[in-house]
Amino acid sequence: MNTLNDVLKHLAADIDEIAGIVENLDDEAWQTPTPAAGWTVADQIAHLTFVFNLARTAAAEPQAFQAITAAAAGNFDGAVNAALAQFKAFPPRELVARFRALGQASIDALAAVPAGQVVPWLVNPLPPVVLGCAGIMEVFAHGQDITDALGVRREPTDRLGNIADFAWLTRDFGYESHGLTPPAEPFRFLLTAPSGEVWSVGPEDAAETIQGPAHDFALLVTRRRHRDDLALTATGPAGEQWLSIAQAYRGPAGEGRKPGQFADAGQ
User: Fold this and answer.
1) Are 37 and 121 in contact (CB under 8 A)?
2) pTM above 0.70, yes or no
3) Which of 170, 199, 156 shows the shortest CA–CA distance to 10?
4) What is the distance between the alpha carbons of residues 114 and 65, in angstroms, rounded to a whole number?
5) How confident is the model at residue 73 (pLDDT cuts 50, 70, 90)?
6) How confident is the prediction for the chain on average, in pLDDT?
7) What is the dihedral of CA 46, 252, 66, 73, to 10 degrees?
8) Are residues 41 and 147 in the same domain?
9) Of 6, 40, 126, 258, which has fewest CB within 10 angstroms of its CB?
10) Same domain, 148 and 164
11) Are 170 and 77 in a shared domain?
12) Are residues 11 and 110 in the same domain?
């Protein structure tokens, strides 16, 4: 896994990329439906802004964060939706400004966490570097929904390595969301970066290996493309099953995407 400094630099670059895509949209374009049912471009940015605000609070004001999560216990989805509505209420230019500002505030807060300390989060406390990778995963996933809606193509970068690392740590989320028992042994991911470098994540002697382009892998674990549209292979039956249930986020898998839904499946 990259250092915290590198991860936060990559997160800042991803935030800047998505902000640059949406900041000059007119009001009508902000209401463009995305492939996530019921979510517009504005909803996607509002959600990311909420996530950054939550991460900033967790890192900088852990007691306030714990109070927020305690108050939302039993109806966390309702709390998320209320926050989403709050951020979505801002005019587009102000929403983008808050997206940038709270994104940077979350980065600054994670950078300031003393070495060796963890940050409280929704289920378990996380090291700042892992929470930073989670932020990169979120920006990639919701950014993909936005670019799909607007017909924009993002050029993949080697910042995707952070998603590969995070997906290895969260491999079991897909099993959990389907009520399945995860395999006892870890997988190995062997992924080709956009630069052409080959990344190996996990033990070299793992019995199960997932192999293919890193960009396809990121699209798989964020469930932004169907596995049939991606050039990923598995060496064993457990890995083959995982390709159909993989997700790098906790909770319900959601509808995902249909085979052939996008003209350029690797977009």
Assistant:
1) no
2) yes
3) 156
4) 18
5) low
6) 93
7) 110
8) yes
9) 258
10) no
11) no
12) yes
Give the CATH number for residue 129. Answer: 1.20.120.450
pLDDT at 266: 47
Write the DSSP assignment of 102-152 as a string of letters.
HHHHHHHHHHTSPTT--B--SSS-B-HHHHHHHHHHHHHHHHHHHHHHHT-
- In total, the chain counts a number of residues equal to 267
DSSP 23: T
Q: What total number of domains does the chain contain?
A: 2
Judge whether 103 lies within some domain.
yes
At a CB cut-off of 8 Å and minimum separation 6, what does 136 contact? 7, 10, 11, 14, 159, 162, 163, 166
User: Any idea which residue has 């996008």 for tokens?
Assistant: 262
Determine, yes or no, domain membership for 257.
Answer: no
Query: Is 256 within a domain?
Result: no
**pLDDT tens profile 174-196:** 999 999 999 999 999 999 999 99
Q: Is 267 part of a structural domain of the chain?
A: no
Domain co-membership, 181 together with 141: no
Strands 233-234 and 209-213: antiparallel
- Write out the two tokens for 177: 């969301």
Number of neighbours of residue 10 by Cβ within 10 angstroms: 23
Question: Residue 185 and residue 76: Cα distance in Å, rounded?
Answer: 33
Asked whether 108 and 129 are in contact (CB, 8 A), the reply is no
In this prediction, residue 75 carries a pLDDT of 65
pLDDT digits (tens, 9 = 90+) for 218-262: 999 999 999 999 999 999 999 999 999 999 998 888 889 999 999
